[in-house]
Structures are given as structure tokens and as C-alpha cells.
Design goal:
Elements lengths: L1 H29 L10 H50 L1 H5 L3 H13 L4 E8 L4 E4 L24 E8 L2 E12 L2 E11 L1 H51 L14 H43 L25 E7 L5 E7 L4 H14 L1
Antiparallel strand pairs: 1-2, 1-5, 3-4, 4-5, 6-7
Length: 363
């Protein structure tokens, strides 16, 4: 009795499962399912890896360019200081002697022989220009560009300003001294165009390098994702096939990692579902056979109760199982005798035929 009850529960559970799967399948066909196919795992993985590589390359390039810019700026400043100090050292005696011809040769050589120098001039303590690389500046008063402060006690003063809208310049000021007494200043302007040119070339090189590394990375990502995600796609196809009812699908396991474990679990799930489905089919068949046997049994039992004067006969029959082996019948012997036949024919089927013969002879 308990086994039949359990069978009924299993039957109801699997009916619900198959009905639920059928319902979801109908939703998938009609487009009413909540699931919507989106970007594949391979595409997502590739996209995120490309973004990651690009972000890393851009970040590295940014810090590299900033680092190179700082180094190059320091080198240009150091070169400008060296040139300015050298001019100041050579201009001590000529400035003291007011020899503007020699001073002019110094500033001319400083500009011509050093790439990037845009101007160089020498002034005295009254800010009168004694030598300049710019025309018509000699013997004029030096006007300090806006934003620049005067030299005080520094050995060399380096400042930055915009000489023209398109050109930034480092203004380097070095004192001219005789016996530690300041008699004038050297003003040297060195352009930052070299820095911009170098940074532009470096940026182009970094762009090319980034493109190359990105291309190599994309190819590597594609190969890697094809190796990893390809197996996931195969497992996904197996799961979808099982979900659609193909429990006979052959699932191949060629890996020994987590993906292989998933494939093995899917294979075990398919096997158990197949066994459960076969068990369900067998129970359905047994149920139909039991129903047929019960109907046959009901035809063998008496369909009516004899009416005997002076007696009231009532019968109630309930089998312990779906189909029992208990049998009863009424036998009319003669006018004064009436028999009730009760037997168990579940073990030996010949008993049933004997009882049927007895019934036929009594009729």
C-alpha cells in the first residue's frame, strides 16, 4: 500500500516537471519566455579583456609620457643653466669694461651653437641691454615679461612663460659677478618645442605599440576563449538538448577541470532523468494493466444479491491491493439449500477455473 502511494507521488512530481518543461518550451516557441538571449560569454570575455588591455596600455602610456616629459624638462633646464652660467662667466670682464662687441659675440654663439635657444642677452645692474640676439635691443632698457620675477639671491633662476601664443619658453637668469659683486645678468630663453616634439613622437610610438599589443592580445584572447568558452558552449548545447527532452544525447567529457566536472554532472543528470522517465513509463503501464485486471475482477464477482425469504444478505468487498485474489459468489444448491462460496485464488490460477466450473454446475 505504501509503495503504491509513493509511486503516486513520483508520478505527480514528474508530471509537474514535464508539464513545467513543456510550458517553458511553449514560452520559448511563442517568445513569451522571460529569458532573452544576450551577448555570448566569449564575446563578453573578449570585450572585457580588450578593454582591460587598452586601459592598462593607456595608463602605462600616460605615466610613461609624464615621466619622460619631466625628465626631458629637467634636461633642458639643466642644459639652459649650463649655457647661461658659461656666458655669465665669460662676460665678467667684458661687461666690466663695457665691451659690447665681445658681449655680442658671446650671446650670438650661445644661440647659434645651442639648439633650442631662442634668445640671449646681457644687462647691467640698471637693466640696460649691452648685447642681445634680437635686433634693435642693444642700449635699450630691459622690460621683464609679465609673470617673471627678478633675480635675487639665487645662483640661477629658471622660470616658465609663454613668449608667443604658440611657444612656451624657459627663461633662465644667471648673475654676472666680479669678486662676488653683481654687475649684471644673463637672460637666456630656451624653447619647450623640443619637449613637445619629443612627446609627440613618443605618443605616436606608444599608439603604434598599443595597437600592436592590442592586436596580439585580441588574437591571444580569441584563442584562449575558443579553448575555454568552446567547451562551455558544448555543455550548454547538451543542457539545452536535455531540457528539450533528448535524454539519449551522448555527452562527451574530454576535460578534467571545472568544465569537465560540469559536463560530468550534466551527464549524470541526464542518466538519472532517463531512469526516472523509464520508471514513470513502467508505472503508467502497470497502472493501466492493474485497471484492466480490476475491471476483469469486477466482472467475475456477483453483480446482484440473491433475495431469499427470511434472510437479508449484504456484501462489501474491498481489496487490500489494487487487484486482490479474494473471490466470493452465491451458489443455489436446491430449494432448501443456499451456499456462499469464498476463496483465495491469488496464488494458483487453477483455483479460479475450478470455482467458475462449480458456479456453472450450480446454475
Amino acid at each position: 500500500m505504501s509503495s503504491l502511494k509513493n509511486s503516486s507521488v513520483i508520478f505527480l512530481d514528474f508530471t509537474f516537471i514535464f508539464a513545467y518543461n513543456k510550458k517553458n518550451e511553449d514560452k520559448m516557441k511563442t517568445g513569451n519566455s522571460e529569458y532573452r538571449r544576450g551577448m555570448g560569454l566569449k564575446a563578453k570575455f573578449s570585450l572585457w579583456m580588450v578593454v582591460f588591455i587598452l586601459t592598462v596600455m593607456l595608463t602605462v602610456s600616460f605615466f610613461f609620457i609624464q615621466h619622460e616629459k619631466k625628465i626631458l624638462s629637467n634636461e633642458i633646464k639643466l642644459r639652459g643653466k649650463t649655457i647661461a652660467l658659461n656666458v655669465a662667466a665669460n662676460a665678467e670682464d667684458p661687461l666690466g669694461q663695457k665691451d659690447d662687441l665681445i658681449l655680442s659675440s658671446f650671446v650670438h654663439d650661445a644661440k647659434v651653437n645651442n639648439k633650442g635657444v631662442v634668445y640671449c642677452f646681457i644687462v647691467d645692474n640698471k637693466n640696460i641691454i649691452w648685447a642681445s640676439t634680437e635686433k634693435f635691443k642693444n642700449n635699450t632698457k630691459y622690460k621683464r615679461p609679465a609673470g617673471l620675477r627678478p633675480l635675487k639671491n639665487e645662483s640661477v633662476l629658471v622660470q616658465e612663460y609663454k613668449k608667443t601664443p604658440d611657444e612656451d619658453v624657459y627663461d633662465i637668469t644667471a648673475p654676472i659677478k666680479i669678486k662676488n659683486v653683481k654687475i649684471g645678468e644673463v637672460h637666456l630663453g630656451i624653447s619647450k618645442k623640443a619637449i613637445k616634439k619629443y612627446l609627440n613622437e613618443t605618443t605616436k610610438g606608444m599608439v603604434v605599440s598599443t595597437a600592436i599589443f592590442l592586436t596580439i592580445g585580441v588574437i591571444g584572447i580569441f584563442v584562449l576563449t575558443s579553448f575555454i568558452i568552446g567547451s562551455v558552449e558544448e555543455v550548454t548545447e547538451d543542457i539545452e538538448a536535455i531540457g528539450n527532452g533528448d535524454l539519449n544525447r551522448v555527452i562527451e567529457i574530454n576535460r578534467r577541470d571545472e568544465i569537465g566536472r560540469i559536463a560530468h554532472s550534466v551527464k549524470e543528470m541526464s542518466r538519472k532523468l532517463k531512469l526516472a522517465q523509464d520508471d514513470l513509463v513502467e508505472k503508467e503501464r502497470m497502472k493501466k494493466e492493474m485497471q484492466i485486471a480490476k475491471e476483469i475482477q469486477q466482472t467475475l464477482l456477483p453483480q446482484s444479491i440473491p433475495n431469499i425469504q427470511g434472510f437479508q444478505i449484504e456484501t462489501f468487498y474491498e481489496s487490500a491491493n489494487e487487484v486482490g485474489g479474494d473471490y466470493f459468489d452465491y451458489i443455489h444448491i436446491d430449494e432448501t439449500h443456499f451456499g456462499i462460496l469464498v476463496a483465495d485464488v491469488s496464488v494458483i490460477i487453477q483455483h479460479l477455473f475450478i470455482l467458475l466450473q462449480i458456479k456453472m454446475l450450480s446454475c
